[in-house]
Amino acid sequence: MVWDEALTSYDFGPGHPLAPVRVELTMALARDLGVLDLVEMAGCVPACDDELALVHRRDYVDAVKTVSKTGRPDLGCGLGTEDNPAFTGVHEASALIAGASLEAARSVWTGEARHAVNVAGGLHHAMAAMASGFCVYNDPAIAIAWLLSQGATKVAYVDVDVHHGDGVQAAFYDDPRVLTISLHESPRTLFPGTGFPGETGAHGSAVNVALPAGCGDSGWLRAFHAVVPPLLREFGPEVLVTQHGCDSHALDPLANLMLSVDGQRTAYAALHRLAHETAGGRWIVTGGGGYELVQVVPRAWTHLIAEASGHPVEPTTPTPQSWRNLVRERTGEVPPLTMTDGRHPQFSDFSGGYDPADPIDRAIVATRKAIFPFHGLDPLP
């Protein structure tokens, strides 16, 4: 578990959806439930310019540094917009998040850890020369690029954020060494407007599952299992990198999927199994989006940390009174009482056949038809 209190300095200011209190409350809940006692804690240092340059243009990094010193907007690099306000210290805060994901990558690649988690990371929208979607430096892409620089020949990236992982896809779009898979709400109804099934890269290395608004646990899990496991098994990555934005939850204010914490927890367990099955257990885990700051993010990511530790939290576990008190003190909101939404996610396997009239099945078929032939797989069940 990579952690430094300074990771909460990535702060776009009052009223911005990406409030650092969500990470603070996550770490507090994980601590109060005893989850952090089950993991080795590691610190981190900011990514240096050469590490940032694995993905970002140096003139962009220089521009971010200038904004960081002055606090003045620079729309040329995307800082000073409503999504990405300029603030003093933005370079240092962003570089530290990238450094945390690099530390996670180093620990897994060197064998110091089988799994490594950076819940403050997952800033998947940042482009080579532009801040975008609350993201300044693209820490998952930087971690993947670093793995490639160390000799990795196959890295798989699975993104379960409700928004398309466009920045990571763009960084490796035509690189056959990296398989990027993103499951997200349809770009017809949600930012960033990309992530259609036809965006495949030159080698079928970009995979996009664009799900209809209103999709819940059963449909999302059906789509996940119809696409992700067969591709990971065929690709055979040396390392699995995953991004776990929990803004697919029904309560998230910025999107329109309808998952529960229980559905999200089920997805984390599936990815854990796939890391062991397809990548020798080498698993690098980041956070991501998630804007229901009390009811969703802390519980979802505490489940994520616990899953990665090998000691999942029983869903019916009560939230500790100490944590509930902290929630009221920090936010004034009523905290959730247990670690579950009371759901028991079930789904039907796609191999049993599909319904052309079902919008989720149409999304699955569109992705499989676009991608599976590149990998020698049959697109239809």
From TrEMBL:
Domain Histone deacetylase, residue spans: 16-306
Keywords, ordered alphabetically: Acetoin catabolism
Gene3D superfamilies the UniProt entry points to: Histone deacetylase domain
Pathway the protein acts in: Ketone degradation; acetoin degradation
Transmembrane stretches, start-end: none
Pfam families named among the record's database cross-references: Hist_deacetyl
InterPro entries the UniProt entry points to: AcuC, HDACs, His_deacetylse_dom, His_deacetylse_dom_sf, Ureohydrolase_dom_sf
Record's keyword annotation contains Transcription regulation: no
Keyword NAD found: no
Protein family (similarity comment): Belongs to the histone deacetylase family.
Stated name of the protein: Acetoin utilization protein AcuC
Organism, as annotated: Microtetraspora glauca
